[in-house]
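Q: Hi! First time doing this. I have a protein sequence and I read that you can turn it into a structure. Is that right? Here it is:
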Amino acid sequence: MVRSLVYFIVFIVSTTGFLATQAKATPAEWTVMIFMNAKNNLEPDAIENFNEIASRGSTPDVNVVVEMGRPAVNITEAAEKWSGVLRFYVRQNQEPVPSQAVVDLRGKPELSDLGSPRALQDFVDWAVETYPAKRYMLVIWNHGQGWRFQLAGDADVRAASASRNQAVPAMPAAALQKAAENTPPLGGFRAVSFDQDTGNFLFNSDIQSVTEVLSSRLSRPIDVIGFDACLMSMLETAYAFQNSSSVLLASEELEPGAGWDYDYFLKRLSAKPSATGLELSQMVVDGYRARYGDSHSTTLSVLDLSKANATAAAISKFADVLLAKYDTEKSNVAQARAGMKTYGSGAGLKTSVDLIGFAQRYAAITNDEAAKTAAQAVAASASESVLYNYASARSKRDTMSNGVAIYFPASNADFEADPYHDGYLKENTAHVVDFVSKERWADFLKHNLQ
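A: Yes, that's right. Below is the predicted 3D structure, encoded as structure tokens:
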């Protein structure tokens, strides 16, 4: 009798393992991978967003996996006040606590630095292997590109909070001091995912490399690359991911702390798991629009990455025309650019403007037919790349938001004030930006800013 019971238990365990293997071998419709780096002052927002994700959770058709990091010195005591990095296969109504994680990385420093491309690569490799699907969405959740952290005191945290949080609670003194010591002033176009504990962050080129490896592994582009972060909907960003992803989902402007409405789009994805990458992205934008409406300067765009190369070619041709006719056109360029408000201006940023808006303004000002034609071609090509776009009334009025921005400081002083302006020089060899090195907009900017 005892031996029979043992055999029965062994059979059940073996069958359970077999069924788990079989389930893993059958792809779901979607796997949504969220790289949630809250090892910084966004920790309270991460808890809230995780709870939104868990309000729906995974289904047989939709896998939702989250890699979540929290700082060594916590800002909030919520969810058991743990620190480090955990991975979750998110089930409905679960909490972001260690006992409900599927992988604990707190003892693996080489994988728990969320400013490290190795950590991101390991996460996406694990997610694709463990939770295969017909379609994939990768979300990078954190501070974005143009964020400049100047944490000299709590007042600075709150002043900067409009970039990703409308009401950030005060940091504990120890956390504040560590952030002030370690936080770099991220540049205006090529960095995201700051890890306060290590002082590291991901350059866009790091994420680009990870997505290219994943795309090669899948033998096709990732369906959606999304940034729940500030200032990422730029031509430079689209250009970087054009070979590894189909759709870019990102904001031209700063994001409020609550970020995307995960409950909104996961509810709709669960109801329609056969959704395409464009349809899923539209669900995210619709939820963002419903959450913020016209109460903030908010934007969110869906870009067709297959159009990025054509838009880049149009901007290179435009740059050539402007350089050839610079002496007669420089005043028109200056006038068109002077009428553009930069994204993140409330946080002191002066480096990116709406690409379509600028091209349209310039085309309306110049009397040179070749220059006008080149500008109109840029506006038309960039407009074709914007598949779906939300911009609040304030954003439409202030920044002429049409869906995609470009790096364009108005003066050499603004350029020099960008701590990572070297990235926009052709001779730069560190974390090279493909758009800068391969296209000719940087050549025009260099001449224009002299």
